[in-house]
Structure formats: structure tokens, C-alpha cells
Design brief:
The complex is a heterodimer of chains A (62) and B (413). With 62 residues, chain A is an alpha+beta fold. Chain A has one domain: 2-Layer Sandwich (Alpha-Beta Plaits), CATH 3.30.70.20. Chain A has 2 helices and 4 strands; from the N terminus they run E-H-E-E-H-E. Chain A has a two-stranded antiparallel sheet with strand order 1-4. A two-stranded antiparallel ribbon of chain A has the order 2-3. The longest helix of chain A has 10 residues. The termini of chain A are close together. The model of chain A has no long low-confidence stretch (mean pLDDT 94). By secondary structure, chain B is an alpha/beta fold. Chain B has a 5-stranded parallel beta sheet, covered by helices on one side. In chain B, strand 1, helix 1 and strand 2 form a beta-alpha-beta unit. In chain B, helix 1 crosses helix 7 and helix 3 packs across helix 4. The C terminus of chain B is likely disordered. The chains are: A alpha+beta (62), B alpha/beta (413). At the A-B interface, helix 1 and helix 2 of A face helix 8 of B.
């Protein structure tokens, strides 16, 4: 599973961090960092992150 | 399966039904002509960045959600309004007379803005709920235009900030002493009021609007708003009026089925409408108990609720259709929303509106841009946190105050 975040769109709301904390986190400078190739077992949580992103900036490429 | 309502809740319900294994036909009916789109930007960046010739269709397309692939075979009936339902015969009726039968129904018809009671003058008056609303407002906005925003809730204050950024002269009329008081309480509301005033928005608080003034009778602009008269007798000139006086649930189509429709649709914790196994409600319209707080059913107009209620409700319907047991774990979503106003990013977690006391955890209310965190207490528990310009890296720490204090669901059920 490939995860892509459009960082031009991202406004650091952090909703993805709530939905999938093992894949998305905010670094100490409050910039989003994420695992672009997470384990398949994370799919459900990443799908939730895609859904809740206020900017709809996250996509999953299979 | 019929989903009444094609907003975020209706879309997520259709997706979740597929994700959880429903293979039958799904029809989603929505009164707007556009596929589901993202509404929060309509009072913020989408209103700000659109040109004054923007068309509603363009705006809706630019904000459209990307549905999950699994929902690709959903049948959309867009631009059609549900006008009646018969829960005994299991059918709904659309505005063109078509009757759709269903084995299970998802109620997701959401909200529409309340309006001021006066019907005339009719022109120059706006609400902000749909892409058409936002486009209609944007068409009339020019630098120097005088706007009176009636109602200082979140939508009103966001609109005020956006319209001021577009060069309008903006006044907000709010009957309570401070804006956004139901969402953030008095102290934070008062701090936000000062921030708005410093940014150039005029606030008239503690008074409502008694009537609207139109143009001179017989004049071509007779039916166009020229000003508002306040309850205290003062008059404000206005070229435009934005009515942000709350919303009402769209539930009239359910009349005649013996349901309590006083404020949305009453559900249990499984989102079943008054105990019916084959009818669920999702999103803004669903009035459900959240054991995170107490056992009182409430509607929650927050960003994450359509998605979370859709997942829960889809599971409820699928268990019913398969004849399997409902999940016994309770449903206790964490409400969250955000608001952007004049360089402030406000984020709320939990239910600050239930609090009887707030406590500043970090920063100073007089210095909002520098970052303020507020804990909202009800008795001995933290029921909400409000974070203003707090870096997201520190949000989890503040959210954990909340979840650790939430009453365990098992004690309430």
C-alpha cells in the first residue's frame, strides 16, 4: 500500500494522526511526517485518515 | 438500501455499507445537483479564493469528495428531494412523485440554515450552507460593501473574517454578550471578540435584529435590503445581510410516522431510529447518546461525526439484515471541529459546550495568536479542550487529558 500526502494542501490539522497514529505523526516542528509504505494491516486506519482529512489531501495508491 | 441525503454523511454511509460487506443495491438521494462535497471551506478559504463570478457547480466540483472505489456502483439520485416516508410500507417519495421501496433506510438529510422570520426585502440576503449559497454571496461581494452578519456563531464569525479579508465593512449582530459562546464558553468567546474587533470587525452584542429595511417603495431596489433595525432601536446600514442564526434538521419528510422530530431524529447508541432495526440516522441529523459524556441524546454538528456515525450505523443495518448480533461495545466518538478566523486556528476536542468552568492551561486569553490551550470542566472531569494556535505536535498531550477523564462507557450502560 502506497500513501501519498499532498503537502501543498496539508494545513497540519492532525486529523490523520488521530485516525492512524502508527502511520502519521507531527514532528517536533509540527510538520506532518508519515510512513509512505505502511503494512497492509494498517489499511483500515489509513482509509479513515483519508476520509477525515479536512483538505482531502491524502490518497492511497494500491 | 436507500440513503436519504447526499452530503458527507450519506456518502460515508454508502461507503461503509460496501466496506462492511453489503452487496445489494444502494441508492442515495440528494436535493443538491452535485455529488457530495466538503462544506467547511465555504465560509473560509473557498469563499476567500473564489472570484466574484464563481459558479456553484465549479465550487462544488472543486470541493468534491473522492468516494471510495467500493462505492463506485452506488446509484445517485441528485437534484431530487425526499418529500415523504412511510416506515410501515418501507418506502420514500421523491419530489417528482417517484416512490422508492427499501429494505433498510439511512436518514442523512442533514441541516438547513434557519432564516430571519421577515420575508421581505428578499434580495441581498444570504446564508452559507451550500455551494449555491456561497457562490450567491460571493457574486455580491465587492470591496467596500457593507455587510451585517446576523448571528455570531462559528459560521457567522468565519464569514465575518472572510468578508473583511475581501474588503467588506463587516458588522456582526449577536444577541448574547459574546460570540460563539455555545461552542467555547464565555471567557474564550470574549477573547475571540477582542481579536475580531482588533482586526476591524464591528460587533454589536447583547441585541438582536428586530427587522430588515428595504429600499424605497416603488423604487427598483424596493425589495433589496438596505439596513437592519436592532432590538434596541439602533439602525445599521447594510448592502448585504448574512443570516447565520443556526440551523434546523431536515426531517419534515419523516412526518406522520409517529417519530419525535423536535430536534433531528432520536436514535439509540446503535443509531437505530427509535428502536427500529431497519432505519438508522447518521450525521448532523442524528440525535444519539454519547456515553463519553452522559446518556442524553444530542445532535453533534462536528466534522468527524458523519463518518463515525456512518460506520456505526452501517454495522447496525448489516447485523440486522444478516440476523447477527449487534456489537456490544458502546459508540463513544470524540467530537472535534476547527475554525479559522483572522490568522487564528481554533481546534476543539470533546464537548466544551457541556462545561461549567474553563481553565487556561497554557498561554493568555489576551494573546490568542501566541497560542492558548483551555481545559473545559464539568464537575471534576475534563469534557473538552480548546486549542488556539497551538502547534499540532502538542495536540495529543492535550487530547489525552480528555480521554483519560471520560467516564468509561461500561459504567453508563
Amino acid at each position: 500500500m502506497k500513501v501519498i500526502v499532498d503537502l501543498e494542501l496539508c494545513q497540519d490539522h492532525g486529523q490523520c494522526v488521530i485516525a492512524a497514529p502508527e502511520v502519521f505523526r507531527m514532528d517536533e516542528n509540527s510538520k506532518l511526517v508519515y510512513d509512505a509504505d505502511p503494512d497492509e494491516s494498517m489499511r483500515r486506519y489509513v482509509e479513515d485518515a483519508v476520509d477525515v482529512c479536512p483538505l482531502q489531501a491524502i490518497t492511497i495508491e494500491d | 438500501m436507500v440513503v436519504a441525503g447526499a452530503g458527507l454523511g450519506g456518502l460515508r454511509a454508502a461507503e461503509q455499507l460496501r466496506a462492511q460487506g453489503f452487496t445489494g443495491e444502494i441508492t442515495v438521494v440528494g436535493d443538491e445537483p452535485y455529488p457530495p462535497y466538503n462544506r467547511p471551506p465555504l465560509s473560509k478559504e473557498a469563499l476567500l479564493s473564489s472570484g466574484d463570478a464563481v459558479r456553484a457547480a465549479e465550487l462544488a466540483a472543486s470541493l468534491a469528495f473522492r468516494p471510495r472505489a467500493a462505492a463506485g456502483d452506488v446509484r445517485w439520485r441528485l437534484g431530487r428531494t425526499v418529500v415523504a416516508a412511510d416506515l410501515t410500507a418501507r418506502s420514500i417519495t421523491l419530489d417528482d412523485g417517484e416512490v422508492l421501496g427499501w429494505g433498510a433506510l439511512v436518514v442523512a438529510t442533514g441541516l438547513r440554515p434557519r432564516r430571519l422570520p421577515q420575508t421581505a426585502p428578499a434580495r441581498g440576503r444570504h446564508t452559507i450552507r451550500t455551494a449555491a449559497d456561497a457562490a450567491g454571496l460571493r457574486h455580491e461581494v465587492r470591496p467596500g460593501v457593507r455587510v451585517v452578519v446576523v448571528g455570531g456563531g462559528f459560521v457567522g464569525c468565519e464569514a465575518a473574517a472572510t468578508l473583511a479579508a475581501l474588503g467588506c465593512a463587516v458588522s456582526v449582530v449577536e444577541p448574547l454578550p459574546v460570540p460563539m459562546v455555545r461552542g467555547v464558553g464565555h471567557r474564550v468567546g470574549a477573547a475571540l471578540l477582542e481579536h475580531h474587533r482588533a482586526a476591524g470587525v464591528q460587533f454589536v452584542t447583547g441585541t438582536g435584529v428586530s427587522r430588515l429595511i428595504g429600499g424605497r417603495p416603488g423604487h427598483p431596489d424596493a425589495d433589496r435590503v438596505r439596513g437592519v433595525v436592532l432590538d434596541d432601536g439602533r439602525t445599521l446600514d447594510a448592502d448585504l445581510v448574512v443570516e447565520s442564526v443556526g440551523s434546523q434538521a431536515t426531517v419534515e419528510w419523516l412526518d406522520g410516522n409517529g417519530l419525535d422530530l423536535t430536534d433531528g431524529v432520536v436514535c439509540d447508541n446503535h443509531l437505530r431510529v427509535e428502536g427500529r432495526a431497519d432505519v438508522v440516522a447518521v450525521g448532523d441529523v442524528a440525535r444519539f447518546p454519547n456515553p463519553r459524556f452522559d446518556s442524553v441524546p444530542r445532535r453533534v454538528e462536528h466534522w468527524c461525526i458523519p463518518g463515525e456515525t456512518a460506520r456505526r450505523a452501517a454495522g447496525t443495518l448489516i447485523a440486522h439484515l444478516n440476523g447477527t448480533a449487534l456489537p456490544d461495545a458502546s459508540f463513544a466518538p470524540l467530537p472535534s471541529f476547527w475554525s479559522d478566523q483572522f490568522g487564528l486556528r481554533l481546534q476543539s476536542f470533546g464537548a466544551p459546550g457541556l462545561a461549567d468552568r474553563v481553565e487556561v492551561l497554557e498561554g493568555e486569553l489576551g494573546q490568542l495568536p501566541a497560542g492558548v490551550a483551555v481545559g473545559c470542566h464539568r464537575g471534576g472531569e475534563v469534557v473538552g479542550v480548546i486549542l488556539i494556535n497551538i502547534p499540532p505536535a502538542r495536540h495529543p498531550g492535550y487530547r489525552s487529558l480528555l480521554s483519560s477523564a471520560a467516564t468509561p462507557a461500561a459504567q453508563l450502560l
